[in-house]
Amino acid sequence: MSKQEFLMLAHRYRENKDDIGGSFVSEKLDGFRCFWDGGITRGKHKKDIPWANHEKDDRFLDQVESLTCTGLWSRYGNIIHAPDFFLDSLPKNIFLDGELWIARQSFQLVRAIASRLPKNRDNNAWRKVKFIVIDSPPAQQMFKAREIETTQFTKVIPSTVLPEIIKSGAGSISAFKYNSFEHVYNLLNESLIQNNHCILHKQAKLPIKETDAKRVVNQLLNAIYNSGGEGLMLRRPHSVWVPERTRVLLKVKPFDDDEAVVIGYVTGRETDKGSKLLGLMGALKVRYKNKHGKFVEFELSGFTDEERVLKCDTDKEDKMSQVKGVSDNEKVLMAYPGAYRWAMMHPGIEIKEGATWITNPMFPIGSAVTFRFRELSDDGVPKEARYWRK
What we know:
The chain is an alpha+beta fold. It has helices at about 85-90, 105-115, 125, 140, 160-170, 180-190, 210-225, 330-335, 335-345; strands at about 10, 25-30, 30-35, 70-75, 95-100, 130-135, 145-150, 155, 200, 205, 230-235, 245-250, 255-265, 280-290, 295-300, 310, 350, 360, 370-375, 385-390.
């Protein structure tokens, strides 16, 4: 049995192995993945929801407002605290799988908006957000008994959940268990009431002939990537929604991406391009588990100057934004003199895991970062790896 997830996930497209003729193609959105349960949990306490993720709930000071469900869930089973006007724009009693999205290259913005608790929520910012609908999962798949075990989410969904969901009358846009994606998409296209916040994602059919389908995919991929998009998604028309990573759903991107854990920092060094990074972080040292299950460590770069600032335990809080009329390096020196001077005197030195006296506040040791890379080397190390986002 395939490893179970909370939502349906894609595999990467393999050009010489995957047949894509006749598949649906759509733009891969760089958004915030989410599930809408039709509003059946809206107003309920999270502790009463059997599929909810409770692993970090004890950190909330306000155990009522912060744990009151909205009906909108992240891919890891956590509440997304959207405001009422946004929730009211979504259809009742219909399960929807999709993305919260604003625009291309706006992932960090939509993530920040969607991650806020009610007391810090920016309702005006939510007016920019759209729920882009991709599919309507059937209850028999979405809430079937299963064990979810991922790095971000561990949960056992008991067999008692599905009968209660069916009894409530909520469900996908179609009542049948094994409706094809093509059938569900056509139903959504006909009956989903769209508005400023709820929009059905546009799908197109590829040619049946494999060579023609690949040619169209390459044309679309180049056009989307050159316009700032991330890539494409391919979906087999006769496939059904399943809560697992499956090859009936494929992602096509010029670069792959994955996550690594920060285990240290390397101070900037003088290079043939100058000494711009002296006094700053030159690279993150990260640990990565590749697709072969092997852990590898490597240096990751691709950061802005602001993201490279180091801080030691003798430095005061960041005052950079208040300093005017001086160079960027002088701002760093005034804000973090201890870390800056030490890094200047120790170029190319690795600050190893376990060090607490000096750190990068934006990338604490133990935190996760997402990076992009071309492919793996023979040693399993990502080639051309560059930092992408947190």
